[in-house]
Design goal:
Radius of gyration of chain A: 22 Å
Structural class of chain A: alpha/beta
Strand content of chain B: 15-25%
CATH class of chain B: Alpha Beta
GO molecular function (chain B): iron ion binding; iron-sulfur cluster binding
CATH topology of the largest domain in chain A: Aspartate Aminotransferase, domain 2
Shape of chain B: globular
Radius of gyration of chain B: 15 Å
Number of helices of chain B: 5
Distance between the termini of chain B: 47 Å
Family (chain B): Belongs to the NifU family.
Number of domains of chain A: 2
Pfam families (chain B): NifU_N
Order of helices and strands of chain A: HEEEHHEHEHEHEHEEEHEEHHEEHEEHEH
Helix content of chain B: 25-40%
Oligomer: heterodimer
InterPro entries (chain B): NIF_FeS_clus_asmbl_NifU_N
Protein name (chain B): Nitrogen fixation protein NifU
Number of domains of chain B: 1
Chain lengths: 417, 156
């Protein structure tokens, strides 16, 4: 697809690639606007899953038989595809996980689990986590701090939900060992200046962690251009299978992680009382992985690139802008982070009306949105807000769906206020 | 008017949501408890003044959706001045109607029957029961104890 100028996405042809979209909910055509929670899978991804399971399925890295070799090749080819997708270089390695949550737990636990004297985190060290995070990038650090004796500091956003370099500078100390940040806040859509913030923390000697779960399907971070030690994302938020994900990062940083899953396929040699762990990436991939999932995830990355990243970004931004404009025209609606033009989502609160009630009335019109605190309770409390309603967009959504959303929210406000 | 507007958001429900009854605190509660819904952070705290096995007074605070607020508001009206055993029996009937075990017409629900439509919306049943959970926990709580949250907070 042409990059310059950007050709619009072929909406109908693209939607035909996603069979799940062609259905009615409560007698209305499904408008699936919950993509920040999970995106749908296109036919090429479904075909890749089926092809692996029907022609290549065997355990990997073990057998000398042909099928095992084919499965191993498919798995390692998936790894290579995804490394290229995210911009990994020779200094990087990529580990398959069950998703962003496991990847972030692997980092946080891996930095204390080696125990006193061995682990990267020591008593008195500082861990800084941004206040925009999903619980998956907060709770593992709460635990890491408690079990290592480190302290947890929060880089809090201002009243508009923005992070500032000056605030980070005030928190950074010579004992800061970790800085963890999101590339896009799932609850508000805020897109922090993560390139600069990561560089600032790395400069101070911290390991840097980027949660890219919300940024992987559009405005994808490019590892080459980032001062980033660990980057995590999920397959099911980029048109890939559920239960798949990636931790990718600098080899030197990944080597600091104590493995989370000890067992088969992650050791070099084992004796009754001791074992020597294998090198990367095997040492962090103990047990039989979700091989078909990895193959499907690589197919999803190829699908994104074949569709065209610039065209996807432009499409999603345009839908978000349309939704923002429409929602801001409804009395009583306040959209969070309206300035976050790069986000693929709009999150909003309604005066006197609870998101669950809006969500039920929207569902009845076939419109799927997320309601609640989106696993980001401290952020919403910090901003003085309760739960929100969130609509999030993907390459297959249409302007018509956004207009239906705006109309349905307006009607819900009439009924409920 | 859509189906949900008809079944779920009847005028009496919206009226209780807009002006919840018995909202606030009691001067001298004997029993209290909180209920929370982890998916949305909603929280309802119920305070009771129990006397000789009777709910002499009841109040609640917190935030929730229209279903949750209306259900809790109607609950306070329904149990105020009644015996604890009657409140517990009413809770069982209300719950049984929402989970489809009892027909709404057969249950002695009074005004609460306006919430019977919730049984068609499985994801919303917990909203309608949040205040009732807090009520049951408050009744079971030791006299004078600080409000217990359910589930308890843990340190990861």
């Amino acid at each position: 697809m042409a990059d310059n100028p950007i050709a619009p996405l072929p909406a109908e042809a693209l939607r035909a690639q996603f069979p799940v979209l062609a259905q009615s909910i409560h007698g209305q055509p499904l408008a699936y606007l919950d993509n920040a929670a999970t995106t749908q899978m296109p036919l090429p991804v479904l075909a890749a899953l089926q092809q692996f399971e029907t022609t290549q399925r065997a355990n990997i890295h073990r057998g000398v038989h042909t099928l095992s070799q084919r499965a191993t090749d498919a798995f390692e080819q998936a790894r290579a595809t995804l490394k290229q997708f995210i911009g990994a270089q020779a200094e990087h390695e990529l580990v398959f996980t069950s998703g962003t949550t496991e990847a972030l737990n692997l980092v946080a636990q891996g930095l204390w689990a080696a125990g006193p004297g061995q682990a990267w985190l020591r008593p008195g060290d500082r861990i800084i986590v941004s206040g925009l995070e999903h619980h998956a990038n907060l709770l593992p650090w709460q635990q890491a701090a408690r079990l290592s004796g480190a302290e947890l500091a929060i880089l809090k956003p201002d009243g508009a939900g923005r992070l500032h370099a000056g605030d980070l500078a005030a928190l950074l100390t010579p004992r800061t060992r970790v800085f963890a940040l999101t590339a896009c806040a799932n609850a508000s859509g805020e897109r922090p200046p993560y390139e600069a913030l990561l560089a600032q923390a790395a400069q101070a000697g911290a390991l840097t962690v980027l949660d890219a779960a919300q940024a992987v399907a559009h405005d994808t971070p490019v590892l080459t251009r980032l001062d980033c030690d660990f980057l995590a994302f999920s397959g099911h938020k980029m048109y890939g299978p559920m239960g798949t994900g990636v931790l990718v990062g600098r080899r030197s940083a990944l080597e600091r992680l104590h493995p989370l899953r000890l067992g088969g396929d992650m050791v070099e040699s084992t004796h009754w009382h001791t074992a020597r762990f294998a090198g990367l990436p095997a040492r962090l991939e103990g047990g039989t992985p979700h091989v078909a999932g990895a193959v499907g995830l690589a197919a999803a990355a190829r699908f994104i690139d074949a569709t065209g990243r610039a065209a996807i970004d432009a499409h999603v931004r345009a839908l978000r802008a349309l939704a923002l404009q429409g929602l801001q025209g409804i009395p009583g609606i306040t959209v969070l982070a309206p300035h976050a033009t790069q986000a693929g989502l709009v999150s909003f609160v309604a005066r006197g009306v609870h998101p669950h009630d809006i969500g039920t009335l929207l569902d009845e019109r076939g419109i799927a949105v997320r309601t609640g605190h989106h696993c980001a309770q401290p952020l919403l409390e910090h901003l003085g807000l309760g739960p929100t309603t969130r609509a999030s967009f993907a390459l297959y959504n249409t302007e018509d769906e956004v207009r239906r959303l705006v109309q349905a929210v307006a009607r819900a406000m009439e009924v409920l206020q | 008017m859509s189906q949900a507007e008809q079944d779920l958001y009847q005028e009496v429900v919206l009226e209780h949501k807009r002006a919840p009854r018995n909202y606030g605190h009691l001067a001298h509660p004997t029993h209290q408890a909180e209920g929370t819904n982890p998916s949305c952070g909603d929280r309802i705290a119920v305070e009771l003044a129990l006397e000789h096995g009777t709910v002499r007074d009841i109040a609640f605070t917190g935030q929730g959706c229209a279903i949750c607020m209306a259900s809790t508001s109607m609950m306070t009206e329904a149990v105020k001045g009644r015996e604890v055993a009657a409140a517990q029996a009413l809770q069982q009937h209300f719950r049984a109607v929402l989970t489809g075990e009892e027909a709404p017409e057969a249950a002695p629900l009074g005004k609460l029957v306006s919430l019977a439509g919730v049984r068609q919306y499985p994801s919303r049943i917990k909203c309608a029961l949040l205040g009732w959970h807090a009520l049951m926990h408050a009744i079971a709580a030791p006299q004078g104890a600080a409000p217990a949250t359910t589930p308890p907070e843990v340190q990861p």
